[in-house]
Amino acid sequence: MHFSYFLLKQGVNMSNGERIFWLLIMLLTMFMYGATNLSCDYGSNLKNQLVAHCDNRGFISVPRNLNRNIQVLDLSNNLIPVIKNNTLINYTKMEILILNSNNISEVHECGFEGLRYLRILRMENNAINISKLPSRVFRPLENLMVLEIGWNEKQWMEHESFVYPDKVFSNLKSLQNLSIDLFDRPVFGNGFKLLQNLAVLNFRRCYMRKHGKLSNETFRNISPKLRELYITRCHHFFHIDKGILRYFPELKILDLSHSYIHLYQALNILYPYQNKNMSVINFHHISDKSINNDKFPYSVIITKELMRYLRSICIEALDLSATGIVDDEFYSLFSFQYPGCFKTFIISANRLPSTTLEHYMQTVVFLTRATNLKTYDMSYLPAQFLNPLYLDVYHPEKFIGSHNQEKQHIFHQSFPYNY
Ligand SMILES: *[C@@H]1O[C@H](CO)[C@@H](O)[C@H](O)[C@H]1NC(C)=O
Ligand SMILES: *[C@@H]1O[C@H](CO)[C@@H](O)[C@H](O)[C@H]1NC(C)=O
Ligand SMILES: *[C@@H]1O[C@H](CO)[C@@H](O)[C@H](O)[C@H]1NC(C)=O
Ligand SMILES: *[C@@H]1O[C@H](CO)[C@@H](O)[C@H](O)[C@H]1NC(C)=O
Ligand SMILES: *[C@@H]1O[C@H](CO)[C@@H](O)[C@H](O)[C@H]1NC(C)=O
Ligand SMILES: *[C@@H]1O[C@H](CO)[C@@H](O)[C@H](O)[C@H]1NC(C)=O
Ligand SMILES: *[C@@H]1O[C@H](CO)[C@@H](O)[C@H](O)[C@H]1NC(C)=O
C-alpha cells in the first residue's frame, strides 16, 4: 500500500497519459496484493512462533501462497464460506488456526488434511451445522488440544433430543478444552468416551428450552477427569436431575452464572463434592424474576437442608450474588464446615436481613473464622439500580463487564480484619 501511495504522489505532476499508465500499474499492484498472500502480515508471538496475520482482509478462501513454515494462522473476520479439501495441506507446521467470524457453512472431509501438529482450532461465530460435519473431518487432528466451535448454526429439534455427532468428535483423542453450543435434551454418545483427556467443557450459546432437561444420564460419556464445566446464560428455566455431576469427581470449577435454573436446583446437584476442594462455584444470577412459582419461588429462604452439600465443600471462591436470597435460618447460610478455604465470598444483590443482631453476629462469626478471605461482598443492590456492578468471582479485583476499573468501596470490603 505504501508503494501504491508513492506512485500516486508521483503521478500528480505528470501528463494525463502518464498518469493513466501509473494508475493502471497501481491498480495492477493492488490487485496482485489482494490476490496473493501479500496482504497478510508476518510476525512472531511471545513463544517465538511464526504468525501470519490474515484477519480482516476480506478473504473468501484460505490464502494458498503463505510461508509454509507458519505455525499460527489468524484468518478471523473474513468471508470464507467453505474449508475445501486439502486447502491447508502445505502448512504442515501449523499449531494454531483461527477461523472465528467467517461465513463457514461447509467443511470438506479433507479440509484439515495435513495439520498433524495443530493444537488449537478456533472456529466460533460461523454458520457450521455440526450435524453436517463429515465424520472423518477431524481425523488428521490427533494432537488437537483446544476446539472452539460454539456460536454456530442453531439446530432444529422440535420435540426430541439433540444427538451430538459423537463419531466426528471421537477422533480428537488429545482434546482438553471443548467449547460448543448447548442444545436441549443433549445426547453425548459413546464416541465422547474416547476424549479421555477432556478437562474443560464450556457451553457457549445455550438453546435449552423452557421445561427442557439435563438428566442423570446426560454426561455419562464425558471424561471423569473433567475439571471445569460452564453452563451459562440459559435464560429459560429447565430441569436438572440431581445426579448430573456424578460423573465428575474431579470438578474444580462449576459455573452456572446467568442460567435461570433456580438456587434450589443448583444447590441440590452439589452432593458429589462433599468434603472435597473446589476452586470456583459461580451461581451468580441463577434465580430470576421470570421464575417465580410455588415450587421455585423468586424469594429464597436458605435452610439447613438446602445448605447441606454446599456447606461441606472447601471452596476458594463462591459467588451467590443475585440469587434471590431474602433470609436464612440460623446455622444455615453461614455454617460452612471449611470457612478457612474461602478467599472470595460474594453474596451481593440479595435481600439478606442485616438488621437483626443475630444475623449480624452470624456473619461476624463466619468472617472471623474465614481467615484466608481477601474479598467479601455482601452489598445490597436495590432492584431499581440500573447498572449494578458485580465483582468478578475469578478476578475479584475487577467488576464484571466494567471498563471502569476504579473500585467503589461501598461494594467491596477487604479482609482479613485485625481484631
Ligand atoms: C473431498 O475429499 C473426499 C475424500 O477424498 C471426497 O470424498 C470428497 O468428494 C471431496 N469433496 C469435494 C467437494 O471435492
Ligand atoms: C501445495 O504444494 C503443492 C506442491 O508444491 C502444490 O502443487 C499445491 O498446489 C499446494 N497446495 C495448496 C493448497 O497450496
Ligand atoms: C455467507 O454464505 C451464504 C451461503 O452459505 C451466502 O448466501 C451469503 O451471501 C454469505 N455472506 C457473505 C457476507 O458473504
Ligand atoms: C443440520 O444438518 C442436519 C443433518 O443434515 C439437518 O437434519 C438439519 O436440518 C440441519 N439444521 C439446520 C438448522 O439446517
Ligand atoms: C483451556 O482451558 C483452560 C481452563 O479454562 C484455560 O486456562 C486455557 O487458557 C484454555 N486453553 C486455551 C488454549 O484456550
Ligand atoms: C438421579 O440420580 C440421583 C442421585 O443418584 C437419584 O437420587 C435420582 O433419583 C435420579 N433421578 C432420576 C430421574 O433418575
Ligand atoms: C484441600 O484444601 C485444603 C485447604 O486449602 C488443603 O489443606 C488440603 O490439602 C486440600 N485437599 C486436597 C485433597 O487437595
Automatic annotation (TrEMBL):
Task: Write out the entry's keywords from A to Z.
Answer: Leucine-rich repeat, Membrane, Repeat, Signal, Transmembrane, Transmembrane helix
Question: Organism, per UniProt?
Answer: Mytilus galloprovincialis (Mediterranean mussel)
What is the designated name of this protein? Uncharacterized protein
Top-level taxon of the source organism: Eukaryota
From the record, give the transmembrane residue ranges: 20-40
Annotated Gene Ontology cellular component terms: plasma membrane
